[in-house]
Specification:
Length: about 375
């Protein structure tokens, strides 16, 4: 049997209904959406238009706002580097942002193209809205605050933050990778400037995503050649990926509310079982405002590497973000919220999703509990 998959923050399994639509495009409707001289191109262009409408409906945007990309990392780079100008940008950051945001900002700062200012998170990863307002009042060129944290699952009040940014006319980039398809979004009504997303976080394939851009927002492209997508993101469109992204968005619009409610109940049940079996278990993040499928735990004194080594063939969980878990340095997220070295060393991220079954969670709880007890016995000798 394959390991039980509980790493939905890293990527999600592709919905079989999405695979069917994508396969149809790959095998029969494979035209280039920019080919205007025959029906294959016409059909491809129509499919792109439909996918845009499905995604726009999910996030409360207009189809005209959407630029298709390879995923959130590209979208974030396009948004941040596309804002560069002759004078350095003043950028205000949540220090718990994904590395795609932090590394991009630090790279342009090292080139003298940006001045970075960091907000102060609480122990649960939340932010002070008054601090955001004070910074924006002093003059900020770009605000970067994610919708949901990819490690501890903390949710941010995107609508309230967007209102602050609008009041001070500050462009707001929201990394919605972990939130789109799981939480209601109203991109236009909330007044966001940029929204980045990846399809593989909500049951579409890897390699397809989007950057949503407010009309008339200046944006210098990263790539040149071809002129597709108003020249802001040129290149032949990834038609199968776009069609899959659109279908996944359509299904999320229909099923998101029911799915996320069930997933939250599963997460709470797993948390209760683990707490009962492991009294020293510590839950990280904002327990009242977190992703339905997120359970971030620490077992102080027990290295997470020892746990992973024992369970990796039976249980797919992670020690942190998929983009940084191979790096030896401790998680910047856990450092920023002030976790102790022992808690950081013993931290694990468990991610539930649409296809997680109750029986799998019971087995996962047993696997984790038994192996933790075994490691404790070994360490106590």
């Amino acid at each position: 049997m394959p390991p039980i998959y509980l790493d939905y923050h890293a990527t999600t399994p592709v919905d079989r209904r999405v695979i069917e639509v994508m396969t149809e495009t790959l095998t029969h409707h494979f035209g280039n959406a920019s080919s205007i001289d025959h029906p294959y191109g016409d059909r491809a262009a129509a499919q792109v238009k439909t996918a845009k409408q499905h995604l726009a409906t999910l996030i409360g945007a207009s189809p005209r706002d959407i630029l298709f990309t390879s995923g959130a990392t590209e979208s974030i780079n396009l948004a941040i580097q596309g804002c560069l100008r002759d004078t350095p940008l003043k950028i205000l950051l949540n220090p718990l942002e994904h590395k795609a945001v932090l590394d991009t900002c630090e790279a342009i700062a090292q080139r003298g193209q940006a001045q970075l200012h960091y907000l102060t998170p609480t122990a649960t990863g939340q932010l002070d809205l008054e601090e955001i307002d004070r910074y924006c009042c002093q003059g900020i060129d770009l605000l970067c605050v994610m919708a949901a944290n990819n490690e501890i699952g903390t949710l941010y009040p995107v609508e309230a933050i967007a209102k602050i940014a609008q009041t001070h006319q500050v462009p707001y980039l929201c990394d919605g990778s972990q939130a789109v398809g799981k939480l209601p979004f109203q991109y236009r009504d909330w007044g966001l400037t940029f929204l980045a997303l990846s399809g593989h976080k909500f049951y579409a394939p890897q390699g397809c995503g989007a950057l949503v851009v407010r009309p008339q927002t200046p944006l210098t492209p990263l790539l040149y050649g071809g002129g597709q997508q108003r020249g802001q993101r040129p290149g032949t469109l990834n038609l199968p990926g776009i069609v899959a992204l659109g279908e996944a968005a359509r299904l999320r619009t229909l099923e998101m509310e029911t799915d996320e409610s069930r997933i939250a109940c599963q997460r709470d049940r797993l948390q209760s079982i683990l707490h009962a079996n492991i009294p020293q278990l510590q839950i990280n993040g904002d327990l009242n405002h977190r992703l339905a499928g997120n359970l971030h735990i620490s077992i102080p004194g027990i290295p997470n590497s020892a746990i992973i080594a024992r369970v990796r063939d039976r249980l797919a969980i992670s020690t942190g973000s998929a983009c940084t878990s191979g790096v030896e340095t401790p998680s910047h997220v856990l450092r920023a919220i002030g976790l102790s070295d022992s808690a950081i060393e013993g931290s694990l991220r468990i991610g539930l999703g649409k296809f997680t079954r109750d029986a799998e969670l019971d087995e996962a709880a047993t696997i984790l509990s038994q192996n933790l007890l075994a490691i404790q016995k070994i360490m106590s000798r």
